[in-house]
Amino acid sequence: MIKFFLMVNKQGQTRLSRYYEHVEIPKRTMLEAAVIKKCLSRSKEQCSFIEYKDFKLVYRQYAALFIVVGISETENEMAIYELIHNFVEVLDRYFSRVTYPKSDPSPGQRGLGAIPCRVHQLHHVPSVTVHKDQYTLPE
Amino acid sequence: MSDVVERTLSALPGLLGSQDSGAGPGGGPARVSATSRLGSLIRSITALSSKHEEEKLIQQEQTNLKATVSAPTTTLKLMKECMVRLIYCEMLGYESSFGYIHAIKLAQQGNLLEKRVGYLAVSLFLHENHELLLLLVNTVVKDLQSTNLIEVCMALTVVSQIFPREMIPAVLPLIEDKLQHSKEIIRRKAVQALYKFYLIAPNQVQHIHDKFRKALCDRDVGVMAASLHIYLKMVKENASGYKGLTESFVTILKQVVGGKLPIDFNYHSVPAPWLQIQLLRILGLLGKDDPRTSELMYDVLDESLRRAEINHNMTYAILFECVQTIYTIYPKSDLLEKAAKCIGKFVRASKINLKYLGLKALTYVVQQDPNLALQHQMTIIECLDHPDPIIKRETLELLYRITNEQNVTVIVQKMLDYLRQSKEEYTIISLTGKIAELAEKYAPDNEWFIQTMSAVFSVGGDVMHPDIPNNFLRLLAEGFDDEKEDGQLRLYAVQTYLSLLEEEDTLYPQKFIQVMSWVLGEYSYLVNDGDPEVIITRLYRLLKQTFVTSETKAWIMSAVTKMASRIPCSKTVDTLIQEFSTSLDTCLRQYAFELKHLCENKELMKTLLPSGASCYEIVVDASLSFLDGYVAEGLSSGAAPYKPQHQRQEEKLSQEKALNFEPYGLSFTSSVSSSGFTGRQSPAGLSLSSDVSGNSAELGQKETSCLQLDGVKKLWGKDGYLPKKENKMGKEDETQSVAQDSILVGHIVDPPLIQPKQQVASLSEEEKEKQQLASKLFVGLGTNSVISLMGKADTTTQKFKRKSKVNETQNSEEASSIQNIATLPFSPLPDVMPNNKENFQGNEHLELRKVSLSSSKVLEASVSFDSSQSLTEADLDEKLSDYRPSTSSLFADSNIEVFQPSQCVPELVTKKVSLSPCLPGELANHPHSEIIGLCSSDILTVYSCKVWTDDCLLLVLFVGNKSTSPVKTVNLMFESSEHFKIVESLRCHFLIIEAQSMESCQKCIQLEKICTKGILSGSISYHLDTDTHLEFSLTFSLSDFIRPMEITTEDFGKLWLSFSNDVKQNFKMSPSQGSLSIALNTLKQKLKLHIVEIIGNEGIAACRLLPSVPCLLHCRTHARTLALWLRSSCSALPDSLLYECQKVMEES
N or C: which end of chain A has fewer CB within 10 A? Predict the structure, then answer.
């Protein structure tokens, strides 16, 4: 079961957040800060799953952007790991101008870091995450 | 699943776009400007360098937004734009609650795109219980009825994300209709909405299970996939109910794996991977412990394994799920083999994520097949030193599962090493718990045990679970079967702690100091050469430390008190008393004064603080009967009789004529609770209060049968403390006989350690080291467990049973000798026989002593009652006779049988020849269920009986020993459940159950989380020849926790208005159910309602959920329909109760 879905940049600024369990707003800020700190402290050779309190974090890094998903113990980490990638592919296809860092070596403003802006103007990113709810929503 | 997302996405903007352009030429430019405003906001935030600047910027933005949204001239288009910025502000963590209401308005009034943004904002801003959410319901209903598909879609989407539970009935029929819609996207979203309902109020969608089945067979894959979520959830709750669907799931999975789905469902050429995972999970749940169902899925699992051979992360995820399913269902050897191979591939992989997955799978699998760990031992060793702490942690988890007596020291050492490096609180808590558990289970010797626990206490500090020190102390106090061993363990503990305390200025965690001081206080007398004065000085030094909290100081003080009772006089104690008598800490001052007074009377002190008696139960006379004299004196001199608080409150209420603003929950208990306060009132008080305080007291008294004090040991009588000696003597007797027995049996040689084979001969130094570690870690793994197809069975749980080995074998020998006698009746009696006889005689003595003990207790009890009873006897008798018939009529129904004590005995005696469980008299008067057998082995049988008393649900468990020898240390353990709470403790412990006799224990069960049906499982373990472990489970339904609530129509009216949670539903009545009164009576009988009044075609009834959550029911009949309307102060209750009502009506 997915608890939350986060997009945070390296500076720790939240780009997008979606909580599937109610969390008070001040607590969200604290949680996000702690989560990004954890992710930043890990190297590329270390594994993409982290234990955090009583749940697990699965993260993937795209240029300067981290996508972090908080999941419960019973979830399949690898499936979530791929889900993140699937999500990015969907964004890629939807906002056709965005390419991932792999094919575009100089991401900068144009790259994935800029996604959230466009995402908001079209209001569909949350609707994408909404679809994710359908298979993993609260228990 | 991925492409479902993709397709929706590609469909929506097209629709929205066309709508937008249709709305007017202004659409385009507005969008552009919105873009730039949000864009510029984001850009300016990104450009900022400090949090403080960001705060300032957002605050300014919010002020602007606030002004804009509340201005009446703001157009919806502008509002939409503001909403988007508000959403972003909230995502950054700045609350924008001023905009919530406008989001709802936007959803209500906007055109399509604006509505979409409005709904989106609502689903992001509000939470399930937000009060504004109610305002959305109307909009949703309107949109659901719209002819525009997109509006319907949006409404369904928002419902599937967030919806107030109470309002489900308002939209449920509309959504049910949508299941037949011609567009698949609508059908899919309807299923998703119903899934949401199932999650928040499962009972309201019970009746549409057939429709879920239809959705499962839908021709559109998306709809089918959506329905799987519901099925996964339902199968998880009740696997047996869906076994029939196994074949359908298998067929679906076959089609998916075989690539029969449209190509859009592929993710990197893996067909619908997330769907596969979902299906594999369902199959795992269905096939668990069920050979027949498992049979059906072997083929498809094999195929899944085979197909998932492409090297891609996604296939690994599927393989992982496959492996888990294969090891969950009834095992099949060649599948197991393939799964094991798969795990091997994972564990050895160079990709770290894959390695992690492999370790996780191995951890899951190793419980069933420890040999697998042996195969991968070298990899595991490498992982143990892996630079990534996450991998290390996962490896420790794996090692934790394969721990046994032989490798425990190495594994615990590894865990402690990790613990010392870890700083995260959650890791510390979970690891300390595991170490403590392993140490208790497998400790090889006393020294190791105490040292490990010391390490746990000092590292775990004050964050660890409080159960750990508590269990440790209990273990020390209760001891094992061998006194000598106990003494040694305690002595070692004392010595260890003394040497730890010698070092000055070491900071220990508070919990550790508490443990140390308790142990020193209890057992320091065991140290022969130690001077108590020295120990007291050390404790005294601790008391003066500033880092010691006052709670810990209280522990230390009581330790000093205990020690002071054993020595004639001490200077340190005197200084201590003097110093702390003037302490600013009132608690410490109190202790100091107590100590001072006790020191003046050493005799009293010794009786109060007997040494080594820490684990004896202290029974408190809860009725405070020793104060009767004082109360009587007070009353005779004109004091007002004591009234419980709720009674006082009620009186106040009845005097008040104005509106009542008090919450109702409290005043209620008085009219219904009965024995809730019987314990507290002294008999004298009871009789007097009923005389004085008129009708309100009467209410409470009606159901009071009698004070239940028999069975309560008396420690405090009229004359003060009654020292109990009998118990101790019994214990001595026992230990003596044990000691005698042990002489007969000689030494037992330790079982030889069997080491796994060493592999290659020539190895580098480092490799050798690893090999050594491996042999230490995996020792005893492959040897003591033979894998078979039924490999799951041999996961024996070893409890901490550190009995001396001598004793154990003696037991088994005894048992076997008895068997000998049984099978060869004419053979000459073996030598052991006399010894056995002696043992039995000893037991008889014990029994006799127990009987005399209890009779004397009863005598005492009756003596202390005498004076009061004469006053109330007549009164009570009358009430009792009133009470009994009423309950029996209340429960007069087929499935709730009322046993009167007189009937109970003969009926059951015929069933069981020698052992018949029978409720004790005072319980038999209450309505109760039939006594049913829960589980049995050839030695023990467990029966259970539910007793529905007025204030709780009592579960009486009987454990009968059918064999001819006594069974020692029988442990009954309940598993904790999310729905139920067992008052006091989850365990029940019988020291000994005599041959052919029965013991019983009572547990009060409380409903923790409302559910219509729940299962409480538990197990019983005992030791005779071997450790035996029996499992059982009990089912409770909501009606077990429902009691009638007697109130008047007036009160009903008042309450009705004060409750906000309500549910309504209409039922068709069958002709047999006829009139309202018949229907209501059925409900009353089955659900224990109290019918308040029936007027014409309307009726009202009331009940309460234990302890005192009221629920009111209003029903009206009209043209063969029965409209039920329930209200309560608790939100989940009406819902579940309605479901119960529905069941009852359908059954009758």
Answer: C
B233 vs A contacts (CB less than 8 Å) = 139
Judged by CB atoms closer than 8 Å, whether chains meet at B46 and A13 is answered as yes
Between CA B305 and CA B25 the distance in angstroms is: 56
- The pLDDT, as a whole number, for residue A20 is 85
Instruction: Please indicate whether, in this complex, the C-beta atoms of B9 and A94 are within 8 angstroms of each other.
Output: yes
State chain B's mean pLDDT as an integer: 74
Using a pLDDT cut of 70, give the percent of chain A over it. 68
Average pLDDT over residues B871-881: 43
- Measured distance CA(B648)–CA(B642) in Å, rounded: 10
pLDDT at B27 over 80: no
Distance CA B152, CA B158 (A): 10
Which chain B residues are Cβ-neighbours of A79 within 8 angstroms?
A: 273-274, 277, 314, 317, 321
Q: State chain B's maximal CA–CA distance in angstroms.
A: 111
Backbone torsion region of residue B1094, taken as left when φ is above 0, otherwise alpha when ψ lies between -120 and 50, otherwise beta:
beta
The reply to whether ipTM tops 0.90 is: no
The residue of chain B nearest to residue A109, with distances taken between CA atoms, is B43
* Residues B575-602: tens digit of each pLDDT: 888 888 888 888 888 888 888 888 888 7
A126 → closest Cβ in B120, B388, B391: B120
| pLDDT > 80? residue B914 | no
* Nearest beta carbon to residue A135 from set B39, B93, B229: B229
Which residue in chain B is spatially nearest to A60 when comparing CA positions?
B353
Pairing of strands A49-52, B1109-1118: unpaired
pLDDT (tens digit, 9 = 90+) per residue, B308-355? 777 889 999 999 999 999 999 998 989 999 998 889 889 888 889 999
- Euclidean distance between CA atoms A60 and A71, whole angstroms: 14
Whether A78 and B390 lie within 8 Å, measured CB to CB: no
Nearest chain B Cα distance for residue A7, angstroms:
10
Q: Where are the beta strands (DSSP E) in A11-123?
A: 14-19, 49-52, 55-62, 65-71
Q: Sign of dihedral through CA atoms B275, B278, B279, B280?
A: positive
Of residues A32, A48, A79, nearest to B277 (C-beta) = A79
* Helix H or strand E segment including B1113: strand B1109-1118
Chain B: give the shortest CA distance to residue A82, in Å: 6
Contacts of B613 (CB under 8 A, 6+ apart): none
Q: Show residues of chain A in contact with B107, CB under 8 Å.
A: none
From the centroid of its chain, how far is CA A99?
17
* B465: alpha, beta or left? (left if phi > 0; alpha if psi -120 to 50): beta
Q: Work out whether the CA dihedral A48, A53, A56, A61 comes out positive or negative.
A: negative
User: How close B237 gets to chain A, by Cα (Å)?
Assistant: 11
Distances (CA, A) of B405 to B178, B413, B791, B794: 61, 14, 20, 16
Instruction: Tell me whether residues A117 and B39 touch, CB distance under 8 A.
Output: yes
Helix (H, G, I), strand (E, B) or coil at B941: strand
Token pair of A29, please?
């800020």
Q: Label residue B886 by pLDDT band (50, 70, 90).
A: very low
User: B444-480 burial, b for 16+ CB within 10 Å, e for fewer?
Assistant: eebeebbebbbbbbbbbbeebeeebbebbbebbbebb
- The closest alpha carbon to B460, from B428, B497, B436, belongs to B428
Q: Which residues of B touch A126 (CB under 8 A)?
A: 120, 123-124
- Asked if residues B302 and B338 have their Cβ atoms less than 8 Å apart, the reply is yes
Confidence band for B656, pLDDT divided at 50, 70 and 90: low
Whether pLDDT at B1081 is above 70: yes
> How far is C-alpha A30 from the geometric centre of its chain's CA atoms?
16
Q: In what order do the strands lie in the sheet with A65-71?
A: A14-19, A2-9, A65-71, A55-62, A49-52
